[in-house]
Structure formats: C-alpha cells, structure tokens
Design brief:
The complex is a heterodimer of chains A (323) and B (244). Chain A is an all-alpha fold. Chain A contains 14 helices and four strands. In chain A, a hairpin with a 2-residue loop joins strand 2 and strand 3. Chain B is α/β, with parallel strands linked by helices. Chain B has a single domain, classed as P-loop containing nucleotide triphosphate hydrolases (Rossmann fold, 3-Layer(aba) Sandwich). In chain B, a hairpin with a 2-residue loop joins strand 4 and strand 5. Classes of the chains: A mainly alpha (323), B alpha/beta (244).
Chain lengths: 323, 244
C-alpha cells in the first residue's frame, strides 16, 4: 500500500515538473496527446487487464465523448464543462445499456461484438452529416476555461489534460486494489469459481465496461476541446487497435504500464514519420512480438530481462576468471 | 431429480436429503453421476426434471452466485483457484458477499471502505489459519502445491460463511498424510455447525467421517444409510466389485 502511494507521488511529481525541463513548443503538444491516450489506455486496461474482457471498440466511446462535447458546444453553444459532464454521463449510460447484451459473450465473440460496435459508431459519425459534419469533420469547438484562464496554449492544455490523467490513474489504482478490483481479477482467472463465491459476474463486467466507457468519453471530450476540430478518422478501428497495443506493450493489469504504452506509441510515430501509412502493420507486429516474448508487458518484462541478463553477465565473468 | 444430456441420462430420479450439521458422503463408481448431481444442486446445470430444496425452499435453477448468498458453496474436483492472485487475496474474494463497498467507494477510498478492507483482510487471515495455511498468505496461488491448493479452496469457500458446503472429491490427488489433515479440517467444519456433503472415492475417508452415505450407480440411487449399513449392502458390493 505504501509502495503504491510512493509510485503515485513520484508519477504525479514527474508529470507536474516535466514542463520545466522542456522548452515548450512541439514536444509539449505531443505530450498533451500522450495524456489523452494514457486515459484511454488505462480505461481499456481496467476492462482487459483487470477483468479479462476484451474490447476492440474503445474508439467508439472516445469518439462519442468527443462528438457529444463538440456538437453541444460548437453547434448549440453550450458551456464546455457542462458539455463534458453531459458527454461523460451519456456515454456511461450507453456503455451500461450496451454492456448487458455484449458482455454475455466471451472470447472471440466478445472481440467481434465490440469490433462491430466500433465500426457502427464510426459509420454513424460519417453518415450523420447534419449533426457531425460527416467525413469533413466538425470545427469551431471552444477551449475549456476556468475563471479567466482559457486553455488555449499547449502548456495550459498540458496541465489541464494531465490533471485528469493523474485523477484517472489514482482512481484506477484504488479500484484495482479494492474489493471490486479483486472480484474483477477473480473473474479473469476463473469465472465459475467467482460465481460460486457469490460474485455477481454479469453485473460487475457491465459496471467495469461502463467505467471504461466513462473514462474514454472523458478523454474524447478533452480531445475535442484541446484540438478544437474532430473528424471520424480520429475514432476509427485503427485507434482501437492502437489502444490495445498500448495496453499490451505496457502490461495487462498494470496501470502505469498503460501510461508507458501510450507514451511509446504516441512518441515513436513522431520520430518515425515514415510509419504513417503502415502504422497498422507496425502495431500488428508489435502485438505479436510482445505476446510471444514479453507477455507481461514492459513493466514486468524489462525487470525480468534485466535480471536474466545480469545473471548471464555474472556467469560470464566467473567463467572468464576460471580460465 | 433427473438430468439428461442429449441421449445420455446422467441422473435418473435420484432423490435424497442431507441433514443439517452433519457430514453426508456421496459415493459411487466412475460415471455414477456424482459430479453431475453437484452441478445441478449448485446451479451450474439446470435439472431436466425435479427440484432442489434448501430449508424447505425451492432453489431449483438458482444461479451459483445467488446460492452463495443463501449460504451454499462448493469446491471443485480439479481445483479452481484464482491463479494470478495471492493465497490471501483468494480468500478475500471469498468475503465478497460479506462486504459491500461499490465501485465509487473503492475508487475514492472512502473511510468506510478502508475500514471494510481491514476487516476483510483480518477475516481472510483467520480463515487461512483455520485451514492451517496462514504461512502461505503472500504466495501466488498458481505456485501452490496441489494439496495446499485444495486447503485454500476450502478456506476460500468457508470465507463465504456458508451453511452448507459441498466438496467435490476433496481427497483426489492427495497423499495419505494430506488426506488425514483434510479429514481433520472437514471435522472442524462440521464442528463449526456447517453441513457438509462430499463426493469422494477414498472409502477410508468417507467411512471414517461421514455419518450418512448415499450410493449412486449409473445415475440411480443404489442405497442410503450409515457407513455400516452401506458396507453390508449387497447391491453396493455388487456395483463396486462386479457380479460374481
């Protein structure tokens, strides 16, 4: 428990002081996106890492959050904070309602159903041109503001987004260590044993699916108000796969791993611009390589790797001495 | 009670009752329908026909989670632990129905939730002590030796604070020392005022601790009675040894 608190404090301190070491400009802009994707990856990790339930349609909740917030403010001139609250509640309600039929399914069928959900929502964004602006997108979304401060620069957005990241991570870590978190991990390991002990498996799955949807919608709303322009391309199938890759890279069930995965997958393409059209191929390859060689993700895999290397180096040294 | 899988009749008009605060053994050769019987009683399968009563109340077709809340739990023949969780956490899940913090209280670490967590932890440790495996609390359940895993599964089921516990071949895969430890544990459970029913192949264990025995064969109830009556029952002897 103490260690968890330390980890959290170090993380929060690093996040708050990071901009002091950066000269601002482009990298801060990229870090805003790292923050948004961290929230999304953590949201997926609660579902996949804790409860063991896959979703290939997370981009749907992300997009719904963004569009509800965007349309309410750009078209109907609502207050952005009010829009954000409405977006989060509405998407939570949608996830809860969809969760009951969808989470009856297991394994591949669940993957297919969530994939379908993602694609249907993506098509809706494209086709309801009157509301969403269709493929050409929705512009004129206002920034969020508190009192006189308008979050209209990269630096201000950095602090805005990362405040939400810190809260999301804190809530998620707390949840994963609680009675509910234990019950979810129990479902992951043996559903029948969890049921025998009186865990209401069906309801808990739907609840965590809802929480995952709520966090994703929050990320969507933040995205809409920081970028101020949204189009369906940001919420397509490849985004869902990208989120899955982030979670796998970081480590299933590791909340901070999701941050790491989000950071790597957001920063790398910035460095290797050439990936652009082949990103889905790269994600696929990373997924295969990770599940084959580091199924626990980087957070668990790297220390293991370091330890085995150390053992080998030590063994090498002692054998040299003996020669 | 009858259970039919496709063309196979696994249980045919089997009817018996188990008495409170007692240990009842259910025995029979392989394929007699013992595990099917447990699966029907604990809501994993629905019976094709027939009823399950608990305290005079019809509980036929109740889900396993509802039965757990009513005080009926079971263990599995091939143990079903939460492998990636620690031994202590496994038992803490057993206290799920005995606690109530929801998602919001948990995420916000509200004071009531923290108090409850402490209580869950203490209770879980005392159940580990009850089963004699408190020294393994921090170990990952998947790394437990088989015999200890079985004790953990029983400790975890006891954490639900059931009124009835159904044990499905608890001695399977245990050596003689582990089996005698198990027998003592089952006696302690009975002494705590809990009704025990067990399916078992180990005759020595069954004859030693059960006060009543039900014998199944090929989906039928063959006999019912005290260990002595069963040992002297001709039909039972024939079923086990084959016809002369």
């Amino acid at each position: 428990m103490k260690r968890e608190l330390m980890k959290f404090l170090v993380f929060a301190a690093a996040v708050l002081t990071a901009p002091l070491f950066l000269k601002g400009g482009y990298i801060v802009n990229v870090l805003v996106f790292v923050g948004i994707y961290t929230i999304l990856a953590v949201a997926l990790n609660l579902l996949l890492g804790l409860a063991g339930q896959i979703s290939l349609g997370q981009a749907a909740f992300f997009g719904l959050g963004a569009y509800i917030s965007g349309v309410l403010t750009a078209t109907y001139a609502a207050n952005p904070w009010v829009a954000m609250v409405i977006a989060v509640i509405a998407v939570g309600a949608i996830a809860f309602a969809l969760g009951f039929p969808i989470l009856k399914l297991k394994g591949h069928y669940l993957a297919m159903a969530t994939l379908g959900m993602g694609i249907i929502v993506y098509i809706i964004f494209n086709e309801t041109v009157d509301i969403t602006g269709g493929p050409s997108g929705l512009s004129g979304i206002p920034n969020l503001s508190i009192g006189g401060i308008v979050f209209n620069t990269d630096m201000k957005n950095y602090y805005l987004v990362w405040s939400f990241v810190i809260v999301t991570i804190l809530l998620s870590v707390n949840l994963s260590q609680s009675r509910i978190g234990r019950a979810l991990r129990a479902i992951h390991d043996s559903e029948v044993a969890a049921r025998i002990l009186g865990v209401n498996v069906r309801l808990l799955k739907v609840q965590i699916f809802t929480v995952s949807g709520i966090f994703s919608a929050l990320a969507g709303s933040l995205y809409a108000h920081t970028v101020q322009f949204i189009s369906p391309a940001s919420f397509g199938f490849n985004v869902s796969i990208e989120l899955l890759t982030m979670v796998i890279i970081g480590g299933l069930g590791s909340i901070y791993g999701s941050f790491l995965g989000a950071a790597i997958l957001t920063l790398l393409p910035e460095l290797f611009r050439t990936f652009q059209d082949y990103d889905i191929v790269v994600y696929g390859t990373v997924l295969i390589v990770m599940t084959m060689f580091m199924p626990g993700g980087l957070v668990r895999g790297v220390p293991l790797l370091a330890r085995s290397l150390l053992v080998r180096v030590k063994a090498g040294l002692s054998s040299e001495k003996s020669v | 009670m009858t259970k039919i899988f496709g063309g196979l009749t696994a249980l045919q008009d089997v009817s018996f009752s188990i008495s409170a605060c007692d240990i009842t053994g259910i025995i029979g050769p392989n394929g007699a329908g013992k595990t099917t019987l447990f699966n029907v009683v604990t809501g994993i399968y629905d019976p094709t026909s027939g009823k399950v009563y608990y305290d005079g109340k019809d509980i036929t077709g109740f889900s396993p989670e509802k039965l757990a809340r009513l005080g009926l739990v079971r263990t599995f023949q091939g143990i079903e632990l939460f492998g990636q969780m620690t031994v202590l956490e496994n038992v803490m899940v057993g206290l799920h129905t005995r606690s109530q913090s929801g998602i919001i209280a948990s995420a916000l670490k509200l004071p009531a939730h923290l108090r409850e967590e402490r209580r869950i932890r203490e209770r879980a440790i005392s159940w580990l002590e009850f089963a004699g495996i408190a020294d393994l609390a921090g170990m990952k359940a998947a790394n437990l030796p088989f015999g200890k895993g079985r004790l953990l599964e029983i400790a975890r089921a006891m954490a639900v604070e059931p009124r009835i516990i159904l044990l499905d071949e608890p001695a399977a895969g245990l050596n003689s020392r582990e089996t005698s430890d198990l027998a003592l544990l089952i006696m302690r459970i009975k002494d705590a005022g809990i009704t025990v029913a067990l399916v078992e192949h180990d005759m020595e264990l069954v004859m030693g601790i059960c006060s009543r025995i039900v014998v199944l064969n090929l989906g039928h109830k063959l006999a019912e009675g005290t260990p002595r009556q069963i040992q002297e029952d001709e039909q039972v002897i024939t079923a086990y040894l084959g016809e002369g």
